[in-house]
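Thread: Sulfoquinovosidase, structure

OP (GT): Posting the sequence first so everyone is looking at the same thing. Length is 526 residues per the record. Can we get the structure tokens written out before standup tomorrow? I want them in the notebook alongside the other entries.
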Amino acid sequence: MTSKMRSLYLEGYDYSIFDLTKPDRVQIQIYGNSVQGRILDGDSPTQLLTSYTESTGRPPVLPRWITSGAIVGMQGGTDTVRRVWNQLQDYDVPVSAFWLQDWVGQRKTAIGSQLWWNWEVDDAHYQGWRDLVDDLRRSGIRTMTYCNPCLVPMDQKPNTKRHLFEEAKKLGILVKDEAGEPYMMPNTAFDVAMLDFTNPEAHAWFKKILRGMVDDGVSGWMADFGEGLPLDARLHSGEDPIAAHNRYPEMWARVNREFADEWRSGSVAAAAAAEEDGDGLVFFVRSGFRESSRWAMLFWEGDQMVSWQANDGIKSSVVGLLSGGLSGFPLNHSDAGGYCTVDLPPLLRYRRGEELLLRWMEVNAFTVVFRTHEGNKPASNCQFYSSGRTLTHFARCAKLYKAWEFYRAELVGEAAATGLPVARHLFLHYPADERVQAMTYQQFLVGTEMLVVPVLDKGRSAVTAYFPAGAGAWRHVWTGDEYGATAHGGFEAEVQAPVGYPAVFVRAGSPVGDRFLSNLRGLKVL
């Protein structure tokens, strides 16, 4: 999609390269014998995006519970979760779910704390799992977990109930290598095998795994990975693995979505609860291709470094959020604080400091889902529960997020109906503004009524905000000051943004803005 409102997309799954680095052309290479695609017609980016997602698919409306409060990502077992839960209650944090990715148990590797890829609860790590899940649910808090389309041999784990790798190998539903054996792929510190979702039996088998997870009280899960099908694999369908590599993320999202839909429609009690309180299962994915939004309910951006960097860190998380929104993935978010930690003194150290965590929380308080992550080396990183200061800030950001829940629900509905993202690059609404065209991570819209200018540099306490022409006046949520474009074009202003007071603006006179400001009463203002 260009600033001249020219837009096209490719169909099919052949390997392709889009080169947008040349000043006079957009160049596309396709590795195949033919090419098929569509040219889109529209007078604005929003028209083009709506037209595009009409063909490629849009996500469903999310259950209200996942967007009603913070998703607390943590690990450590039952006692640790209960201890942190008590702290969160002491700090009055609005929580919608605990996301416990280590429900399967942890293994120590060279990468850090990693999971046993065998999708069943580890009763030793989470003693009294069902009691914990039920206690949380009675307080209006859901439990979320983790899975991916890979399996590992479990001969080194003592308390395994089912050896899913061996089951899948016996059924012949794993991706195979040239010798016809399960294709064992190196993944970080261990080897894994992938389920072959070109085989219908793999779909049916994995849905039973998901059913067991939900029967254990789980309401949602991260559906990780899916992007790494080997290019020399042998598949049940016999299809070209290079094309199947691009199709696999869609298949992975589809098996999760079909299960979620079947669970909802197959249970009278579930359907009644869904109508009553916005119930329903939710999964979120990181891998994707053209039609992933037809199947995936929600995206996240994968594993950023715990850094301030533009190429991989807090800044790139905003780039991914906005470019994803322009590419037909309207419901997206990142791990608050990032994930990838490197702690190899004295050679290389990337550890999450307090300031980075606090600023990342402020960014993510204005995305569709507000979820934390401890990272791959939790002990090396600052966490939301590290101190009274971090807990206080986490509570503040969760309340900021809660304050626009009413508008978020409207925007989620709009995403499902039109494909327009919740978090938006300003280009969607101000495409002729050359200053807007040059923006990457500096600021973004939430819908049309809110403007966020995050602090993305260490040690900064002010930002430069840009207000494009034609937008009218914007009101700063903390001071009430109004800013707006001049008759000669857009307007730029330096705005103070100390920690705890992100530079957020609402459209002056907007009912959405007025309600948001009303909901913010009680939070300390400048």
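GT: Both are above now. Quick notes for whoever picks this up: The two ends are 41 Å apart (CA to CA). The mean pLDDT is 95.
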